[in-house]
Structure formats: structure tokens, C-alpha cells
Specification:
Blueprint (H helix, E strand, L loop, with lengths): L1 H6 L15 E3 L4 E3 L13 H26 L1 E6 L2 E5 L21 H9 L13 E3 L4 E3 L11 H4 L10 H9 L4 H29 L1
Antiparallel strand pairs: 1-2, 3-4, 5-6
């Protein structure tokens, strides 16, 4: 134990004194040191170089902690430490990238603004609707969605007399009347996606 105590690093001073005082931006936890740093060159040895860098970093951190504890209002003290209320940020930091420009309104957004149409609420966007026939809640789209026609889901599909010729044509092409509803629904989805892309392109050009 005696050897361990002898090799323990000496306790450093809490007060940090510099010829030119630090300036602080406590909102950013920033301490500016205007004093020239005395850092040993790498030629003097890696240990000396690293020790000087660590000393400069330690002094800056200690000065920042001192300023925080003497300036900021203490919110509360917990078992993990002290919680402080930081002041507003005073240093204007430059952005890495320019401020993003607002996206131009799409054709639908322009139409909605003219007609006074408001966006749907969260409740209105829910993928559920009440079926009065079955007295149950069902999905509007997706798995077992209500947008699927009976020709896609029912095990038995009634084919009207006027559909016989169409069913024969589908069978000749390798399709079926049952799959025709799914194909039409997929085509509607693709048409809507094409219209959406055109609206976005039109908005970016305007």
C-alpha cells in the first residue's frame, strides 16, 4: 500500500491561473484559451509531448468546471452529481451545410390550399374502418384489406353472363377472372405512383 501511495500522481490545483483569462460560452460548454500553448515538440519525446497536451486539456477542463459551478444555477443534486441549468448559446457556430430550402408545394398541396382542404388527422389516417355488414373493424388496405375485390378473396366467385367471353379471353392469355381484380388494383397503384412522381417533378421545376 505504501508503494501505491508513493507512485500516486500529485493532486493538482483546482484554481487555474493564466496571464490571459479564459473566455467561456457555457451554453456550448466551451472554454477559449488565448494564451500560447507551450507544447514540447515530438522530437523531445512522445511522453513529454503527450504530457504537455494533457496538461493544457486538463487546465481548460478545470477552468470550465469552475466557471460552471460558480456561474450556473444548480437545478438539483443527485447521487450521480450536480445538475446545472446552462445559459443560452452565445457563439454563432457556422453550419457545415447550407440551410435546406423549403420544398415547393406539389400540385395537390396547391389545390388543397385553394380549396381549404386540411391534412387528415391521426385518427383519419388509421388503416382501419368499421364494416357495418360484419360489425367488425377491418383494414382499409394491405393484408385482408377492404380495397381487395371479392374476386381476389372469396373461394367462389360469381361470373355474370356478360363476363363469359371476357373470362374465355383471359383463360386464353393464361389469366383468370379471379386474378383480374388484383391486376386492376396493382395497375391503379402504379398509376397513382406515376402521378405522384410527375407532381413532384412539376413542383421542382416551378
Amino acid at each position: 500500500m505504501a508503494a501505491t501511495a508513493a507512485t500516486r500522481a500529485p493532486k493538482l490545483q483546482v484554481a487555474v491561473e493564466k496571464p490571459t483569462p479564459y473566455t467561456f460560452d457555457l451554453g456550448l460548454l466551451l472554454a477559449n484559451d488565448a494564451n500560447p500553448a507551450k507544447i514540447a515538440s515530438s522530437a523531445a519525446g512522445k511522453d513529454a509531448h503527450e504530457a504537455d497536451l494533457a496538461a493544457v486539456a486538463r487546465d481548460g477542463a478545470q477552468a470550465l468546471v469552475n466557471q460552471l459551478l460558480t456561474t450556473c444555477r444548480i437545478d438539483r443534486t443527485t447521487n450521480d452529481g450536480v445538475l446545472l441549468n446552462l445559459p443560452p448559446v452565445a457563439t454563432a457556430l457556422p453550419r457545415e451545410k447550407p440551410v435546406p430550402e423549403p420544398k415547393p408545394p406539389t400540385k395537390w398541396e396547391q389545390f388543397a390550399a385553394r380549396k381549404g382542404i386540411k391534412p387528415k388527422t391521426r385518427e383519419q389516417r388509421r388503416n382501419l374502418q368499421y364494416n357495418k355488414e360484419t360489425n367488425e373493424w377491418e383494414r382499409k388496405w394491405g393484408y385482408k384489406g377492404a380495397n381487395r375485390s371479392a374476386a381476389e378473396t372469396d373461394w367462389l366467385v360469381e361470373v355474370k353472363t356478360s363476363q363469359y367471353e371476357k373470362d374465355a379471353e383471359l383463360a386464353a392469355k393464361g389469366h383468370s377472372y379471379r386474378g383480374e381484380g388484383r391486376r386492376e388494383r396493382k395497375e391503379r397503384i402504379k398509376r397513382n405512383e406515376r402521378k405522384m412522381r410527375k407532381n413532384q417533378e412539376r413542383a421542382t421545376r416551378s
